[in-house]
Write a structure and sequence with these properties.
Length: 84
Amino acid sequence: MSDRDEIEVPEQVVQTLTIRDDVLDELLDKVRSDRYPSSTMMDDIEKLLTPWRRREYAQVLLDKIRDDRFPSRSMIQRLIRLSG
């Protein structure tokens, strides 16, 4: 693809994606640091999740499941849904 073939993305789309990533970053940090993150927060993450951030979220959930002696069934089910 040459420079002339590049698609110009409208500024509004760039701003929307940036806001989406910013919110997603904050929510992922909260889930990462909370011992028992709220299901509402994880629902919000899943609404904002983009294909290129899916692996990152799955890793956060997997780490939480590994670190908990009795992991939440809900969290395990979320991870399973992400896998397929």
